[in-house]
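Quick question, first post here. What does this chain look like in 3D?
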Amino acid sequence: MTNVQRRATLLCGLARPDRQAEAEIVPKPNGSTSVRGGAKGESPPKSEKRESIGDALSHWIGSSNVALDWAARTIVTLYGSITPTTLAPRHIPALNAAAERTASANTRQVRSTSLRRCLFYLADNYGAKANLGSQIARHPRPRPRNITATSEEREAIIRNAPDHVRVWILLCSDLGIRSGTAAKITPNHYDKARRELTFTTKYEEKVTLPVTSELAALLSTPGLDATRAYTAQLSTTPWVTGARYGRQQMTAGGLRNCFKRITKEVGITRRLVPHDLRRTTAVRVYENCHDLRKVQSILGHTKLESTLWYLDHRLTPVSLSDLELAKLNPTTEAIQ
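> Answer (accepted):
Ran it through. Tokens below.
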């Protein structure tokens, strides 16, 4: 359609206001087309994609974002064979129930947020109903856990742990590594000459940290297989199912159970978990250097707000001199 023809069509439309405007297919230079015009107040129709929900969300399964991976897998497991356009409000209760199936308030909040993200994605790109995401139950983000271990508790736990558990505890405590990642550390990750540990976090971030003397002594144990985890090689207990520190204790879950047992043996009555050692390291490093970037580097966070989550429970009192200084003009006044 030429410019003259477009103007003529526009004038005819103005002359006959009762006539509903027609949508126009406009070709683009790259070979695709777009829809222009149409009745007032109406959006151009979306092109319906015939893929199933399983196909639409397949690229998020296996994502480094653990919560997003969980949400995509959950939706695909329940409704992967149907198309996004047939997804309806009656399908939402099962998704809400899946998000509720955890004791952690923080996990519930993260899972529900990821479910909403998946549903909004299906609405924006595959024609699913736009209001489905808003029907996912909202869980407020809980306050961060504020438990840290004392020096006495830490020393008692390490002193009573066998070598394969001790190396795991030191990785969680001295270097602030997540317990699941610490259970997978092998001699290949350790540079003895530089005394540095290089590993990848569960969010696919590469981190290099210096190693403390106590930990270096265990990591330098001779004769270890470079590809097997330290926790599997430093055990002197036979791998017998049911043993106090037997084969089942080599996994991250087994090591956590072992940690729980040791805390009881040394007389710690309050609930203390391995992740509290990671938080303890973050708090103590910040108290020593007051540098958030150093804490962020130790924890392996890409976002500073994640680091602040570990320190959110510690408020520093404001002194009178700080308030007086804030009132001064920095270019003309000085505090007395």
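Residues 286 and 292 are 7 Å apart (CA to CA).
Residues 6-48, 238-248 have pLDDT under 50 and may be disordered.
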